[in-house]
Amino acid sequence: MNNFEYNQKAINDVYKNAHIALQSISDLLPEVEDKEFKNELQYEYDGYEKIIGEISQYMSEKNIEPKDISIFKKAMLSGSIKMKTLVNSSRNQVAEMMIKGTVMGITELTAMKNEGENLDEDVLSLLEKLLSLEEEYQERLKKFL
User: Fold this and answer.
1) What is the mean pLDDT of residues 135-144?
2) Residue 1 burial (CB < 10 Å; 0-12/13-18/19+)?
3) What is the total count of domains within the chain?
4) DSSP assigned state of 70
5) Is 81 helix (H, G, I), strand (E, B) or coil?
6) Closest alpha carbon to 3 in 114, 126, 123
7) How far is CA 55 from CA 1, 18, 100, 116, 134, in A?
8) DSSP character at residue 90
9) Whole-prediction pTM value?
10) d(CA 44, CA 115)
11) What is the CATH number for 94?
């Protein structure tokens, strides 16, 4: 894999990571009744939407085709969220689900960063920006447990 292909895959992985978070929040928002928690989720949604815009702009400038998460994966994610909130949609349960998802994102991004010795400066910058955002959100969510 040449350097361009390597960075193309990396930025698509960062893009997918942010999209999964955005999709999860979108699926969870209708289930949340607590106003303060709903505001937190909206705040996070807006942050993910902003970084997706930055990633998309970079991809457009580099003529990289964004590869969204598959319809099957979206359906599985949505179904899993619906099942879990059907059983228990308490603020604590939803915050725990969000924290687990955020930790998965942090883990994936950290591994990419640590293995990414050939990452372009711009790709690394966007990766680090999303990583920082996810770490912030993980901390913010703890107060809702």
Assistant:
1) 97
2) exposed
3) 1
4) P
5) helix
6) 123
7) 22, 9, 24, 17, 15
8) -
9) 0.89
10) 27
11) 1.20.1260.10
Residues ≥6 apart with Cβ < 8 Å to 33? 89
What six digits make up the tokens of 137?
């959100």
* DSSP state letter for 50: H
Domain that holds residue 60: 3-144
Q: Residue 75 contacts by C-beta under 8 Å, 6 or more apart in sequence?
A: none
pLDDT digits (tens, 9 = 90+) for 42-83: 999 999 999 999 999 999 999 999 987 777 666 666 667 666
Cβ within 8 Å of residue 26, ≥6 positions away: 45
Q: What is the mean pLDDT of residues 117-137?
A: 96
Whether the Cβ atoms of residue 54 and residue 126 lie closer than 8 Å to each other: yes
Q: Distance between CA atoms of 94 and 32, rounded to whole angstroms?
A: 8
